[in-house]
Specification:
The protein is α/β, with parallel strands linked by helices. It has nine helices and 15 strands. The strands form six sheets. A four-stranded parallel β-sheet has the order 11-2-1-15, with helices on one face. A three-stranded antiparallel β-sheet has the order 12-13-14, with no helix packed on it. It has a two-stranded antiparallel ribbon with strand order 3-6.
């Protein structure tokens, strides 16, 4: 006996096949769609801060990346005396925005290698030209980061990475030549719609009515797959136009002919890394970035007030590598040593720092 299929299972299978668009179309056809509530970043309600909680207590923080800066900021607000030890010649950690300004962020040298120096032409004297050598975008679910940006008034802008005009390639597809993502995706959508629309309806084992089934398949083939009247996928405008044939006015361009379905399936690298990249959690549109560089977040943390009129940035000791941590009954002993700009330890520079707590 064949197992019947429910509406829920149909929608689940559509989502697996093609993502959110066919799913929402199917929901609309079945009268099940609801308006989604967007997830907006907002400042969490401020918890009550006791500024004297850490009075008389020292905290050693190892690393001046965003985690270390955040710890120093939150603990300083509660009265702790924080000291940040950073082994590198620069703070900010993985937030590494390279500019041609001669600062510690304009060059980098790994142990045993020659230094890499930024030699961009300065275009306006304001550091407008930069390169993200580390972190580079903020997904929508990084709510804590977005909250701090709002709190510190770090201006954000859209980070656009997913474009169907992007070129993709795979050694085992199209003789290794790149094609636009729109051509690959719409070819794929067309063939999937063709397979579904021309399938034997008796094999779907459905509890849906014949009318519902027909409506769903028609909408899917028209909007998702762009099939012709015979339910066959052919050349279509959404996949783009052949070079030098894009028309204007009454002169139509010439759409690309579809790749063979079997050829699409062989494009291993595109399938593995590119075709559904914008559906992954960390790369889903819309991404955000700080205006003028991701390091603006770290810089905003370093501007925040600390104890005795200081700022968080004043708590950082650069080129101080922690070489040993000793836990005592009531204290923590931090043995740190100075390094040169290449990370090499300098002899006879070890010092011991005693703290009540250590964040490593």
């Amino acid at each position: 006996m064949k197992t019947p299929i429910t509406r829920r299972e149909v929608l689940q299978r559509l989502a697996i096949l093609g993502g959110s668009m066919p799913l929402m179309q199917a929901l609309s056809v079945l009268g099940l769609s609801q308006q989604a509530t967007p997830a907006l970043a907002k400042l969490a309600d401020e918890i009550e801060i006791n500024p004297n909680l850490g009075a008389g207590k020292k905290v050693a923080i190892i690393g001046a990346g965003l985690s270390g800066l955040t710890a120093a900021y939150e603990l300083s607000r509660r009265g702790f005396e924080c000291h940040i030890f950073e082994a590198d010649k620069r703070a900010k950690g993985r937030a590494f925005t390279v500019r041609p300004d001669g600062s510690n962020d304009s060059w980098y040298q790994e142990v045993g290698r020659k230094p890499e120096i930024c030699t961009f032409d300065e275009i306006d004297g304001a550091g407008s030209l930069y390169f993200e050598a580390g972190a580079g975008r903020i997904p929508s679910h990084h709510r804590t980061t977005l909250n701090y940006c709002k709190k510190f008034q770090v201006e954000l802008q859209t980070y656009i990475f997913a474009s169907r005009a992007n070129l993709v390639r795979s050694d085992d597809f199209n003789q290794g030549k790149p094609v636009q993502m729109r051509r690959f995706k719409h070819n794929l959508r067309g063939y999937l719609a063709e397979m579904l629309r021309t399938a034997d309806s008796a094999r779907l084992d459905t509890q849906m009515s014949a009318e519902e089934q027909e409506q769903l398949l028609d909408k899917f083939s028209q909007a998702f797959g762009k099939l012709n009247a015979k339910f066959v996928y052919q050349a279509e405008k959404r996949a783009g136009y052949q070079a030098n044939t894009i028309g204007a006015g009454n002169q139509a361009g010439e759409p690309w002919q579809p790749f063979a379905f079997a050829d699409l399936l062989r494009a291993e690298k595109i399938w593995r890394k590119q075709v559904f990249n914008d559906m992954s959690y960390y790369w889903q549109p819309t991404l955000l970035q700080p205006v003028a560089g991701i390091d603006k977040i770290a810089t905003a943390f370093m501007r925040q007030p600390a104890r005795a009129g200081m700022r968080i940035g004043n708590l950082i000791s650069l080129q101080r590598q922690v070489v040993e941590i000793k836990l005592q009954p009531n204290t923590v002993h931090i043995l740190h040593q100075q390094t040169d700009s290449s990370g090499n330890k300098l002899p006879q520079t070890q010092e011991n720092f005693v703290a009540d707590f250590c964040i490593a």
